[in-house]
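Intended use. Records such as the GntR family transcriptional regulator entry shown here are meant for training and evaluating sequence-to-structure methods. They are not intended to support clinical decisions.
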Amino acid sequence: MKFLFEKINDLKKTKPLTKHEQLVNAIISKIESKELKKGDRLPSINKMVAEVGFARKTIVKAYEDLKGRGIIESKNFKGYYIADVNTNTKLRVALVLFAFHSFQEDFYNTFRKELGKKYIINVFFHHNNIDVFKDILSRISGRYGMYVIAPIQTPEVGLLLKNIPSEKLLVIDRHIPLPSDYSYITQEFEDSTYDQLKKLLPEIKKYKKFILFFKDNSDYPVGILNAFNKFIEENNIDAKVEKEYKKDSVTKNTLYFFISDGYLWEILRDSKSKSYTIGEDIGVLAHNDNAIKEIIFGGITTISTDFKKMALEAANYLKFREHTRKIVPSELIHRNSL
């Protein structure tokens, strides 16, 4: 590795560069000149200390920087190796989401576009399954420069996330308690849902019954259920919570509130077959907006976080790394279904 040490020593004369930048630039330069190839082993940290005279922590920082870009990797404590010769990569990002629902697709597309091609983004889905979540974390641990994670809201997951250095983790979508040095850009469900329901009170009272579909042991936010129960109790509304929708059970003068879209499509189909008019014979309210809800049946009223805005905020965090703790508010999008 004499050629590498010589390059580092040459870069020591470049005053604007820090020692960390000298190391990174030297390795990148030798990859681009093809003197370092994929699979080549880099000098150990101890060897680097002895040859170039930099502090151990400086060399570790340089290697971790290159690991974060996916350019080098460490293998079972046996050393550091060239993993990728694409030196244009700025950062290798692990994006962990619940599932590829339409609103999370909006998040991904905006996030991907905002970061650009120099960021490598690998996407993983845990489907609110703790075993799957643990498996994903074990597979991606130490392999990425940044982890953007929509967590399962349990204390166990909070403990797992603390194993990721705070400067490498951004929590998105669902909020989870973490120490103050961790950043997040998340939603809040209970207060925001309650506030939007209050705005809809005159429309809600047009209907004889108000039904929320809420599955236990699902990824449904419990804050929505709490907000619903508080709202109907305070306003003396005839309402109930159903776990599932039964085919052809749609009835007139009822307002239906959906968290996921599966039952929404079933009720709309059954309403069409019975010639019910949405917004008159029955009311429809849904959580999480998307382009389809904007168009069908004259538009479906939604209570939704702006996932594109959340994605822009998350992308900017990755680019500038300024500590942030932000709640993206839910908004009422009033359409013809009420």
